[in-house]
Amino acid sequence: MTIPGQPPTANPAALSSVVKAEAVNKYFGSLHVLKDINLEVQKNETVVIIGPSGSGKSTFLRCINHLEKINSGHIYVNGHLNGYSERNGKLIEDSENNIARQRAEIGMVFQRFNLFPHMTALENILEAPLRVRQTPLAQAKAEGERLLARVGLASKRDSYPNQLSGGQQQRVAIARALAMRPSLMLFDEPTSALDPEMIGEVLDVMKELAQEMTMIVVSHEIGFAKAAARRVIFIDEGQILERGTPDQIFNSPQHERTRAFLSKVLI
Amino acid sequence: MYFFDWKVFLQYTWPPTALQNPLIRTGLIVTVVVSVIAQVLGVIFGLIAALGKMSRLVPLRWLSEAYIWYFRGTPLLVQMSLLFFGFGVTHIYNFPTISLGMIAVSGAIQAGTLALAINEGAYMEEIIRAGIESIDPGQMEAAKSLGMNYRLAMSRIILPQAAKVIIPPLGNEFNNMMKTTSLMQVISAGELFYAYTQVNARIFKPFELFIAASLYYLFLTTVWSLIQARIEAGLGERKGVERGPSMMQRLFSGAGKGVR
Question: What is the pTM of this model?
Protein backbone atom coordinates (compact mmCIF):
# COMPACT_ATOMS: atom_id res chain seq x y z
CA MET A 1 0.00 0.00 0.00
CA THR A 2 3.04 2.19 0.01
CA ILE A 3 3.17 2.09 -3.78
CA PRO A 4 2.18 5.54 -5.03
CA GLY A 5 -1.00 5.75 -7.02
CA GLN A 6 -1.08 6.85 -10.59
CA PRO A 7 -4.09 8.81 -11.74
CA PRO A 8 -5.61 6.61 -14.40
CA THR A 9 -6.05 9.25 -17.04
CA ALA A 10 -2.57 10.72 -16.69
CA ASN A 11 -0.23 10.02 -19.54
CA PRO A 12 3.10 11.61 -18.75
CA ALA A 13 5.25 11.70 -21.84
CA ALA A 14 8.13 10.32 -19.83
CA LEU A 15 6.33 7.03 -19.38
CA SER A 16 5.63 5.00 -22.47
CA SER A 17 2.34 3.18 -22.37
CA VAL A 18 2.53 -0.53 -23.15
CA VAL A 19 -1.21 -1.03 -23.47
CA LYS A 20 -3.68 1.60 -24.49
CA ALA A 21 -7.32 0.64 -24.88
CA GLU A 22 -9.68 3.25 -26.29
CA ALA A 23 -13.44 2.87 -26.20
CA VAL A 24 -13.34 -0.88 -26.67
CA ASN A 25 -16.68 -2.52 -27.29
CA LYS A 26 -17.37 -6.17 -27.72
CA TYR A 27 -20.52 -8.19 -28.22
CA PHE A 28 -21.20 -11.89 -27.98
CA GLY A 29 -24.21 -11.95 -30.26
CA SER A 30 -26.57 -9.43 -28.71
CA LEU A 31 -24.79 -9.50 -25.36
CA HIS A 32 -22.74 -6.35 -24.81
CA VAL A 33 -19.80 -7.74 -22.85
CA LEU A 34 -17.38 -4.82 -23.01
CA LYS A 35 -18.72 -1.28 -22.89
CA ASP A 36 -16.39 1.56 -23.84
CA ILE A 37 -13.38 0.24 -21.98
CA ASN A 38 -10.57 2.78 -21.66
CA LEU A 39 -7.36 1.75 -20.01
CA GLU A 40 -3.74 2.68 -20.24
CA VAL A 41 -0.98 0.60 -18.73
CA GLN A 42 2.51 2.05 -18.38
CA LYS A 43 5.81 0.28 -18.62
CA ASN A 44 6.66 -1.85 -15.57
CA GLU A 45 3.25 -1.21 -14.11
CA THR A 46 1.14 -3.99 -12.65
CA VAL A 47 -2.60 -3.59 -12.98
CA VAL A 48 -4.99 -5.97 -11.27
CA ILE A 49 -8.50 -6.32 -12.66
CA ILE A 50 -11.19 -7.52 -10.28
CA GLY A 51 -14.88 -8.02 -10.74
CA PRO A 52 -17.67 -10.59 -10.51
CA SER A 53 -17.57 -13.59 -12.81
CA GLY A 54 -19.12 -12.80 -16.15
CA SER A 55 -18.22 -9.14 -15.81
CA GLY A 56 -16.02 -9.23 -18.92
CA LYS A 57 -12.63 -8.97 -17.24
CA SER A 58 -11.24 -12.15 -18.78
CA THR A 59 -12.74 -11.25 -22.14
CA PHE A 60 -10.99 -7.89 -22.02
CA LEU A 61 -7.69 -9.61 -21.25
CA ARG A 62 -8.19 -11.99 -24.18
CA CYS A 63 -8.95 -9.05 -26.47
CA ILE A 64 -5.56 -7.55 -25.69
CA ASN A 65 -3.71 -10.42 -27.42
CA HIS A 66 -6.50 -10.88 -29.93
CA LEU A 67 -7.75 -14.27 -28.74
CA GLU A 68 -11.08 -12.45 -28.95
CA LYS A 69 -12.06 -9.94 -31.60
CA ILE A 70 -13.40 -6.54 -30.69
CA ASN A 71 -16.33 -4.82 -32.37
CA SER A 72 -15.14 -1.24 -32.04
CA GLY A 73 -12.46 0.85 -30.42
CA HIS A 74 -8.70 0.45 -30.43
CA ILE A 75 -6.24 -1.59 -28.45
CA TYR A 76 -2.64 -0.51 -28.87
CA VAL A 77 0.19 -2.67 -27.59
CA ASN A 78 3.58 -0.96 -27.65
CA GLY A 79 2.04 1.68 -29.90
CA HIS A 80 0.79 -0.80 -32.51
CA LEU A 81 -2.86 -1.42 -33.13
CA ASN A 82 -3.14 -5.05 -32.08
CA GLY A 83 -4.69 -7.58 -34.43
CA TYR A 84 -6.05 -4.96 -36.78
CA SER A 85 -5.13 -2.29 -39.19
CA GLU A 86 -7.35 0.70 -39.69
CA ARG A 87 -8.50 1.88 -43.10
CA ASN A 88 -10.97 4.74 -43.49
CA GLY A 89 -11.95 4.41 -39.85
CA LYS A 90 -12.74 0.73 -40.19
CA LEU A 91 -10.98 -2.06 -38.35
CA ILE A 92 -9.62 -4.68 -40.71
CA GLU A 93 -8.27 -7.86 -39.21
CA ASP A 94 -4.57 -8.40 -39.74
CA SER A 95 -3.09 -11.38 -41.52
CA GLU A 96 -2.62 -14.49 -39.44
CA ASN A 97 1.15 -14.20 -39.43
CA ASN A 98 1.05 -10.56 -38.36
CA ILE A 99 -1.26 -11.42 -35.50
CA ALA A 100 1.06 -14.26 -34.50
CA ARG A 101 4.04 -11.90 -34.55
CA GLN A 102 2.23 -9.46 -32.27
CA ARG A 103 1.15 -12.22 -29.90
CA ALA A 104 4.74 -13.38 -29.57
CA GLU A 105 5.43 -10.12 -27.73
CA ILE A 106 2.67 -10.75 -25.21
CA GLY A 107 2.94 -13.51 -22.65
CA MET A 108 -0.26 -15.11 -21.41
CA VAL A 109 -0.87 -17.33 -18.42
CA PHE A 110 -4.15 -19.21 -18.28
CA GLN A 111 -6.39 -20.31 -15.46
CA ARG A 112 -6.02 -23.95 -16.51
CA PHE A 113 -2.26 -23.70 -17.24
CA ASN A 114 -2.64 -25.18 -20.76
CA LEU A 115 0.78 -26.77 -20.74
CA PHE A 116 1.45 -29.06 -23.68
CA PRO A 117 0.95 -32.52 -22.15
CA HIS A 118 3.10 -34.35 -24.71
CA MET A 119 6.18 -32.32 -23.84
CA THR A 120 8.38 -32.14 -20.75
CA ALA A 121 8.57 -28.96 -18.69
CA LEU A 122 11.70 -27.87 -20.52
CA GLU A 123 10.29 -28.79 -23.94
CA ASN A 124 7.20 -26.71 -23.16
CA ILE A 125 9.46 -23.75 -22.54
CA LEU A 126 11.69 -24.34 -25.58
CA GLU A 127 8.94 -24.90 -28.12
CA ALA A 128 8.11 -21.29 -29.01
CA PRO A 129 11.65 -19.86 -28.88
CA LEU A 130 12.85 -22.66 -31.16
CA ARG A 131 9.94 -22.72 -33.61
CA VAL A 132 8.75 -19.13 -33.61
CA ARG A 133 11.93 -17.19 -32.91
CA GLN A 134 14.36 -19.72 -34.43
CA THR A 135 16.61 -19.32 -31.39
CA PRO A 136 19.64 -21.66 -31.54
CA LEU A 137 19.03 -24.75 -29.42
CA ALA A 138 21.95 -24.27 -27.03
CA GLN A 139 20.95 -20.69 -26.31
CA ALA A 140 17.26 -21.54 -25.89
CA LYS A 141 18.14 -24.41 -23.58
CA ALA A 142 20.36 -22.29 -21.38
CA GLU A 143 17.66 -19.64 -21.20
CA GLY A 144 14.97 -22.27 -20.52
CA GLU A 145 16.92 -23.82 -17.69
CA ARG A 146 17.57 -20.40 -16.21
CA LEU A 147 13.82 -19.67 -16.30
CA LEU A 148 12.98 -23.02 -14.71
CA ALA A 149 15.45 -22.28 -11.93
CA ARG A 150 13.90 -18.87 -11.52
CA VAL A 151 10.44 -20.36 -10.88
CA GLY A 152 12.07 -22.90 -8.57
CA LEU A 153 11.64 -25.96 -10.77
CA ALA A 154 15.13 -26.70 -12.09
CA SER A 155 14.81 -30.30 -10.93
CA LYS A 156 11.57 -30.81 -12.87
CA ARG A 157 12.92 -30.07 -16.34
CA ASP A 158 12.27 -33.59 -17.61
CA SER A 159 8.88 -34.07 -15.96
CA TYR A 160 5.71 -34.20 -18.00
CA PRO A 161 2.86 -31.90 -16.95
CA ASN A 162 0.81 -34.81 -15.55
CA GLN A 163 3.69 -35.52 -13.16
CA LEU A 164 3.56 -31.98 -11.74
CA SER A 165 1.24 -30.43 -9.19
CA GLY A 166 -1.07 -27.61 -10.26
CA GLY A 167 1.18 -25.00 -8.71
CA GLN A 168 4.23 -26.44 -10.43
CA GLN A 169 2.40 -26.56 -13.76
CA GLN A 170 1.41 -22.92 -13.44
CA ARG A 171 5.00 -21.94 -12.65
CA VAL A 172 6.18 -23.81 -15.75
CA ALA A 173 3.48 -21.97 -17.72
CA ILE A 174 4.83 -18.66 -16.46
CA ALA A 175 8.37 -19.68 -17.44
CA ARG A 176 7.08 -20.74 -20.85
CA ALA A 177 5.52 -17.33 -21.43
CA LEU A 178 8.66 -15.54 -20.22
CA ALA A 179 10.85 -17.53 -22.62
CA MET A 180 9.55 -15.39 -25.48
CA ARG A 181 10.86 -12.29 -23.65
CA PRO A 182 7.48 -10.58 -23.83
CA SER A 183 7.07 -6.91 -23.14
CA LEU A 184 3.72 -7.54 -21.48
CA MET A 185 2.37 -10.38 -19.37
CA LEU A 186 -1.32 -11.19 -19.10
CA PHE A 187 -2.56 -13.42 -16.28
CA ASP A 188 -6.08 -14.80 -16.57
CA GLU A 189 -7.11 -15.91 -13.08
CA PRO A 190 -3.81 -17.74 -12.64
CA THR A 191 -4.59 -19.15 -9.21
CA SER A 192 -8.32 -19.92 -9.50
CA ALA A 193 -7.80 -23.56 -10.48
CA LEU A 194 -5.24 -24.22 -7.75
CA ASP A 195 -5.58 -25.93 -4.42
CA PRO A 196 -5.24 -23.32 -1.64
CA GLU A 197 -1.84 -24.56 -0.49
CA MET A 198 -0.38 -24.01 -3.96
CA ILE A 199 -1.60 -20.47 -4.52
CA GLY A 200 1.24 -18.94 -2.53
CA GLU A 201 4.05 -20.42 -4.63
CA VAL A 202 2.53 -19.03 -7.83
CA LEU A 203 1.83 -15.62 -6.31
CA ASP A 204 5.41 -15.43 -5.02
CA VAL A 205 6.72 -15.89 -8.56
CA MET A 206 4.28 -13.26 -9.82
CA LYS A 207 5.19 -10.75 -7.12
CA GLU A 208 8.85 -11.03 -7.99
CA LEU A 209 8.01 -10.68 -11.66
CA ALA A 210 5.88 -7.59 -11.01
CA GLN A 211 8.98 -5.65 -10.05
CA GLU A 212 10.37 -5.74 -13.56
CA MET A 213 7.50 -6.54 -15.92
CA THR A 214 4.43 -4.87 -17.27
CA MET A 215 1.56 -7.06 -16.11
CA ILE A 216 -2.20 -7.15 -16.29
CA VAL A 217 -3.64 -9.63 -13.86
CA VAL A 218 -7.23 -10.77 -13.62
CA SER A 219 -7.42 -12.14 -10.12
CA HIS A 220 -9.30 -12.05 -6.86
CA GLU A 221 -6.13 -12.40 -4.82
CA ILE A 222 -6.45 -9.24 -2.78
CA GLY A 223 -3.19 -9.93 -0.98
CA PHE A 224 -1.35 -10.03 -4.27
CA ALA A 225 -3.03 -6.87 -5.47
CA LYS A 226 -2.07 -5.02 -2.29
CA ALA A 227 1.53 -6.18 -2.48
CA ALA A 228 2.24 -5.91 -6.18
CA ALA A 229 -0.33 -3.79 -8.01
CA ARG A 230 0.09 -0.13 -8.70
CA ARG A 231 -3.51 0.13 -9.75
CA VAL A 232 -6.67 -1.88 -9.31
CA ILE A 233 -9.55 -1.79 -11.77
CA PHE A 234 -13.05 -2.91 -10.88
CA ILE A 235 -15.13 -4.14 -13.82
CA ASP A 236 -18.80 -4.94 -13.56
CA GLU A 237 -21.19 -5.78 -16.39
CA GLY A 238 -18.61 -4.87 -19.01
CA GLN A 239 -17.80 -1.44 -17.62
CA ILE A 240 -14.92 -0.08 -15.59
CA LEU A 241 -16.77 1.18 -12.55
CA GLU A 242 -13.84 2.20 -10.45
CA ARG A 243 -10.09 2.52 -10.63
CA GLY A 244 -7.45 3.56 -8.20
CA THR A 245 -4.60 2.44 -6.01
CA PRO A 246 -5.06 -0.78 -4.06
CA ASP A 247 -5.43 1.38 -0.99
CA GLN A 248 -8.24 3.44 -2.53
CA ILE A 249 -10.12 0.46 -3.93
CA PHE A 250 -9.82 -1.91 -1.01
CA ASN A 251 -9.99 0.54 1.90
CA SER A 252 -12.29 3.23 0.62
CA PRO A 253 -14.20 2.07 -2.45
CA GLN A 254 -16.39 4.82 -3.85
CA HIS A 255 -18.85 2.84 -5.88
CA GLU A 256 -21.56 0.90 -4.17
CA ARG A 257 -21.08 -2.11 -6.44
CA THR A 258 -17.39 -2.22 -5.61
CA ARG A 259 -18.22 -2.25 -1.94
CA ALA A 260 -20.78 -5.02 -2.44
CA PHE A 261 -18.30 -7.09 -4.45
CA LEU A 262 -15.45 -6.61 -1.99
CA SER A 263 -17.62 -7.49 0.97
CA LYS A 264 -18.05 -10.92 -0.62
CA VAL A 265 -14.41 -11.40 -1.55
CA LEU A 266 -12.72 -9.88 1.50
CA ILE A 267 -13.56 -12.14 4.38
CA MET B 1 -21.25 -85.88 -50.34
CA TYR B 2 -18.43 -83.52 -51.17
CA PHE B 3 -14.95 -84.93 -51.08
CA PHE B 4 -12.62 -82.33 -49.51
CA ASP B 5 -9.44 -82.23 -51.55
CA TRP B 6 -6.77 -81.99 -48.83
CA LYS B 7 -3.98 -82.10 -51.36
CA VAL B 8 -5.17 -78.96 -53.14
CA PHE B 9 -6.03 -77.28 -49.86
CA LEU B 10 -2.59 -77.88 -48.36
CA GLN B 11 -0.77 -77.04 -51.56
CA TYR B 12 -2.42 -73.61 -51.68
CA THR B 13 -2.30 -73.00 -47.91
CA TRP B 14 1.14 -74.19 -46.83
CA PRO B 15 3.32 -71.14 -47.63
CA PRO B 16 6.37 -72.92 -49.12
CA THR B 17 4.20 -74.53 -51.80
CA ALA B 18 1.51 -71.87 -52.14
CA LEU B 19 4.01 -69.07 -52.64
CA GLN B 20 5.70 -71.02 -55.41
CA ASN B 21 2.73 -69.98 -57.49
CA PRO B 22 3.78 -66.60 -58.95
CA LEU B 23 0.16 -65.35 -58.98
CA ILE B 24 -0.24 -65.95 -55.27
CA ARG B 25 3.23 -64.70 -54.40
CA THR B 26 2.67 -61.46 -56.31
CA GLY B 27 -0.91 -61.25 -55.03
CA LEU B 28 0.23 -61.32 -51.42
CA ILE B 29 2.78 -58.58 -52.04
CA VAL B 30 0.26 -56.47 -53.98
CA THR B 31 -2.31 -56.81 -51.21
CA VAL B 32 0.12 -55.66 -48.51
CA VAL B 33 1.72 -52.87 -50.55
CA VAL B 34 -1.60 -51.55 -51.87
CA SER B 35 -3.08 -51.62 -48.34
CA VAL B 36 -0.20 -49.58 -46.95
CA ILE B 37 -0.19 -47.03 -49.78
CA ALA B 38 -3.98 -46.67 -49.84
CA GLN B 39 -4.08 -46.23 -46.07
CA VAL B 40 -1.32 -43.62 -46.07
CA LEU B 41 -3.03 -41.71 -48.87
CA GLY B 42 -6.36 -42.16 -47.09
CA VAL B 43 -4.94 -40.53 -43.96
CA ILE B 44 -3.62 -37.63 -46.05
CA PHE B 45 -6.96 -37.16 -47.85
CA GLY B 46 -8.76 -37.49 -44.53
CA LEU B 47 -6.55 -34.87 -42.90
CA ILE B 48 -7.09 -32.44 -45.77
CA ALA B 49 -10.85 -33.04 -45.65
CA ALA B 50 -10.91 -32.65 -41.85
CA LEU B 51 -9.03 -29.35 -41.99
CA GLY B 52 -11.32 -28.27 -44.83
CA LYS B 53 -14.41 -29.10 -42.86
CA MET B 54 -13.15 -27.12 -39.85
CA SER B 55 -12.08 -24.20 -42.04
CA ARG B 56 -13.47 -20.72 -41.70
CA LEU B 57 -13.82 -20.56 -45.48
CA VAL B 58 -17.28 -21.68 -46.55
CA PRO B 59 -16.30 -23.05 -50.02
CA LEU B 60 -13.69 -25.30 -48.42
CA ARG B 61 -16.26 -26.59 -45.97
CA TRP B 62 -18.69 -27.33 -48.80
CA LEU B 63 -16.01 -29.10 -50.81
CA SER B 64 -15.16 -31.33 -47.87
CA GLU B 65 -18.80 -32.03 -47.15
CA ALA B 66 -19.48 -32.97 -50.77
CA TYR B 67 -16.48 -35.32 -50.83
CA ILE B 68 -17.56 -37.07 -47.66
CA TRP B 69 -21.19 -37.20 -48.71
CA TYR B 70 -20.44 -38.83 -52.05
CA PHE B 71 -17.74 -41.29 -51.03
CA ARG B 72 -19.46 -42.47 -47.88
CA GLY B 73 -22.83 -42.57 -49.60
CA THR B 74 -21.90 -44.80 -52.53
CA PRO B 75 -20.41 -48.32 -52.65
CA LEU B 76 -16.66 -48.63 -52.98
CA LEU B 77 -17.10 -51.34 -55.59
CA VAL B 78 -19.04 -48.90 -57.76
CA GLN B 79 -16.51 -46.11 -57.19
CA MET B 80 -13.67 -48.41 -58.16
CA SER B 81 -15.41 -49.64 -61.30
CA LEU B 82 -16.29 -46.09 -62.28
CA LEU B 83 -12.73 -44.93 -61.81
CA PHE B 84 -11.13 -47.79 -63.73
CA PHE B 85 -13.64 -48.70 -66.45
CA GLY B 86 -15.50 -45.39 -66.65
CA PHE B 87 -12.46 -43.14 -66.78
CA GLY B 88 -10.76 -45.54 -69.19
CA VAL B 89 -13.55 -45.73 -71.75
CA THR B 90 -14.07 -41.96 -71.81
CA HIS B 91 -10.32 -41.37 -72.00
CA ILE B 92 -10.51 -39.04 -69.01
CA TYR B 93 -7.60 -41.07 -67.74
CA ASN B 94 -6.51 -44.45 -69.07
CA PHE B 95 -4.32 -45.52 -66.17
CA PRO B 96 -1.36 -46.56 -68.31
CA THR B 97 1.07 -49.04 -66.84
CA ILE B 98 3.84 -47.32 -64.91
CA SER B 99 7.19 -49.05 -64.69
CA LEU B 100 9.21 -48.45 -61.56
CA GLY B 101 12.58 -49.96 -62.39
CA MET B 102 12.00 -53.74 -62.42
CA ILE B 103 8.34 -53.56 -61.45
CA ALA B 104 5.46 -52.72 -63.75
CA VAL B 105 2.45 -51.27 -61.92
CA SER B 106 -0.70 -52.05 -63.88
CA GLY B 107 -3.43 -49.49 -64.42
CA ALA B 108 -5.83 -51.67 -62.45
CA ILE B 109 -3.56 -51.52 -59.39
CA GLN B 110 -3.24 -47.75 -59.71
CA ALA B 111 -6.97 -47.23 -60.10
CA GLY B 112 -7.78 -49.69 -57.35
CA THR B 113 -5.33 -48.10 -54.92
CA LEU B 114 -6.61 -44.63 -55.73
CA ALA B 115 -10.25 -45.69 -55.27
CA LEU B 116 -9.44 -47.34 -51.95
CA ALA B 117 -7.51 -44.25 -50.81
CA ILE B 118 -10.20 -41.74 -51.79
CA ASN B 119 -12.89 -43.84 -50.17
CA GLU B 120 -10.78 -44.32 -47.05
CA GLY B 121 -10.15 -40.57 -46.82
CA ALA B 122 -13.88 -39.97 -46.46
CA TYR B 123 -13.91 -42.23 -43.41
CA MET B 124 -10.58 -41.06 -41.98
CA GLU B 125 -11.90 -37.48 -42.09
CA GLU B 126 -14.32 -38.21 -39.28
CA ILE B 127 -11.72 -40.07 -37.21
CA ILE B 128 -9.15 -37.31 -37.62
CA ARG B 129 -11.63 -34.51 -36.95
CA ALA B 130 -12.88 -36.27 -33.83
CA GLY B 131 -9.25 -36.58 -32.71
CA ILE B 132 -8.56 -32.90 -33.28
CA GLU B 133 -11.79 -31.82 -31.64
CA SER B 134 -11.05 -33.96 -28.59
CA ILE B 135 -8.10 -31.70 -27.77
CA ASP B 136 -8.81 -28.97 -25.20
CA PRO B 137 -9.28 -25.63 -27.04
CA GLY B 138 -6.93 -24.16 -24.43
CA GLN B 139 -4.08 -25.93 -26.22
CA MET B 140 -4.67 -23.95 -29.40
CA GLU B 141 -5.00 -20.74 -27.38
CA ALA B 142 -1.76 -21.41 -25.52
CA ALA B 143 0.02 -22.11 -28.81
CA LYS B 144 -1.38 -18.95 -30.39
CA SER B 145 -0.51 -16.82 -27.38
CA LEU B 146 3.10 -17.97 -27.78
CA GLY B 147 3.09 -16.53 -31.29
CA MET B 148 2.51 -19.73 -33.26
CA ASN B 149 0.50 -19.54 -36.44
CA TYR B 150 -2.23 -22.07 -37.24
CA ARG B 151 0.06 -24.40 -39.16
CA LEU B 152 2.70 -24.54 -36.47
CA ALA B 153 0.14 -24.95 -33.70
CA MET B 154 -1.56 -27.77 -35.61
CA SER B 155 1.59 -29.65 -36.51
CA ARG B 156 3.44 -29.25 -33.22
CA ILE B 157 0.73 -29.03 -30.58
CA ILE B 158 -2.65 -30.29 -31.74
CA LEU B 159 -1.92 -33.17 -34.13
CA PRO B 160 0.67 -34.93 -31.94
CA GLN B 161 -1.91 -35.02 -29.16
CA ALA B 162 -4.75 -35.94 -31.51
CA ALA B 163 -2.61 -38.80 -32.86
CA LYS B 164 -3.04 -40.63 -29.58
CA VAL B 165 -6.79 -40.55 -30.11
CA ILE B 166 -6.57 -41.25 -33.85
CA ILE B 167 -4.16 -44.19 -33.88
CA PRO B 168 -6.38 -46.91 -32.33
CA PRO B 169 -9.25 -46.43 -34.84
CA LEU B 170 -6.67 -45.92 -37.59
CA GLY B 171 -5.30 -49.38 -36.82
CA ASN B 172 -8.78 -50.82 -37.19
CA GLU B 173 -9.19 -48.99 -40.48
CA PHE B 174 -6.00 -50.58 -41.77
CA ASN B 175 -7.25 -53.98 -40.76
CA ASN B 176 -10.38 -53.34 -42.81
CA MET B 177 -8.30 -51.98 -45.64
CA MET B 178 -6.36 -55.23 -46.06
CA LYS B 179 -9.62 -57.11 -46.38
CA THR B 180 -11.23 -54.52 -48.65
CA THR B 181 -8.39 -54.73 -51.18
CA SER B 182 -10.07 -57.98 -52.28
CA LEU B 183 -12.66 -55.83 -54.08
CA MET B 184 -9.92 -55.05 -56.59
CA GLN B 185 -10.54 -58.54 -57.90
CA VAL B 186 -13.35 -57.13 -60.09
CA ILE B 187 -10.89 -54.94 -61.97
CA SER B 188 -8.33 -57.78 -62.21
CA ALA B 189 -5.74 -55.91 -60.18
CA GLY B 190 -3.73 -59.02 -59.35
CA GLU B 191 -4.05 -58.93 -55.58
CA LEU B 192 -4.42 -61.98 -53.36
CA PHE B 193 -8.07 -62.79 -53.98
CA TYR B 194 -7.65 -62.27 -57.71
CA ALA B 195 -4.78 -64.78 -57.62
CA TYR B 196 -6.96 -67.41 -55.99
CA THR B 197 -9.84 -66.81 -58.40
CA GLN B 198 -7.38 -67.29 -61.26
CA VAL B 199 -6.17 -70.59 -59.81
CA ASN B 200 -9.78 -71.57 -59.29
CA ALA B 201 -10.58 -70.81 -62.90
CA ARG B 202 -7.98 -73.37 -63.84
CA ILE B 203 -8.66 -76.23 -61.36
CA PHE B 204 -12.15 -75.38 -60.06
CA LYS B 205 -11.77 -76.11 -56.35
CA PRO B 206 -13.55 -73.04 -54.92
CA PHE B 207 -14.16 -74.52 -51.46
CA GLU B 208 -10.53 -75.46 -50.79
CA LEU B 209 -9.03 -72.46 -52.57
CA PHE B 210 -11.20 -69.81 -50.97
CA ILE B 211 -10.65 -71.24 -47.51
CA ALA B 212 -6.95 -71.07 -48.27
CA ALA B 213 -7.34 -67.45 -49.43
CA SER B 214 -9.30 -66.58 -46.29
CA LEU B 215 -6.51 -68.00 -44.12
CA TYR B 216 -4.00 -65.69 -45.75
CA TYR B 217 -6.21 -62.69 -44.99
CA LEU B 218 -6.63 -64.00 -41.45
CA PHE B 219 -2.85 -64.24 -41.14
CA LEU B 220 -2.39 -60.65 -42.34
CA THR B 221 -5.04 -59.18 -40.04
CA THR B 222 -3.78 -61.16 -37.04
CA VAL B 223 -0.18 -60.07 -37.54
CA TRP B 224 -1.41 -56.50 -37.85
CA SER B 225 -3.44 -56.76 -34.63
CA LEU B 226 -0.29 -57.78 -32.78
CA ILE B 227 1.70 -54.89 -34.26
CA GLN B 228 -1.16 -52.52 -33.43
CA ALA B 229 -1.24 -53.64 -29.81
CA ARG B 230 2.48 -52.94 -29.51
CA ILE B 231 2.11 -49.49 -31.06
CA GLU B 232 -0.74 -48.59 -28.71
CA ALA B 233 1.15 -49.84 -25.68
CA GLY B 234 4.16 -47.75 -26.74
CA LEU B 235 1.98 -44.66 -27.15
CA GLY B 236 0.81 -44.86 -23.56
CA GLU B 237 4.22 -45.53 -22.09
CA ARG B 238 5.97 -42.53 -23.55
CA LYS B 239 3.74 -40.20 -21.53
CA GLY B 240 4.34 -42.09 -18.33
CA VAL B 241 0.70 -43.17 -18.47
CA GLU B 242 0.02 -46.56 -16.91
CA ARG B 243 -1.29 -49.12 -19.36
CA GLY B 244 -2.62 -52.62 -19.00
CA PRO B 245 -0.68 -55.53 -20.50
CA SER B 246 -0.35 -55.40 -24.26
CA MET B 247 -1.96 -58.01 -26.45
CA MET B 248 1.49 -59.57 -26.94
CA GLN B 249 1.89 -59.91 -23.21
CA ARG B 250 -1.60 -61.25 -22.85
CA LEU B 251 -1.10 -63.84 -25.59
CA PHE B 252 2.38 -64.97 -24.67
CA SER B 253 2.93 -64.04 -21.05
CA GLY B 254 6.63 -63.52 -20.46
CA ALA B 255 7.45 -63.26 -24.14
CA GLY B 256 6.43 -59.60 -24.14
CA LYS B 257 9.12 -58.56 -21.66
CA GLY B 258 11.25 -56.94 -24.30
CA VAL B 259 8.30 -54.98 -25.62
CA ARG B 260 8.49 -51.30 -24.84
Answer: 0.86
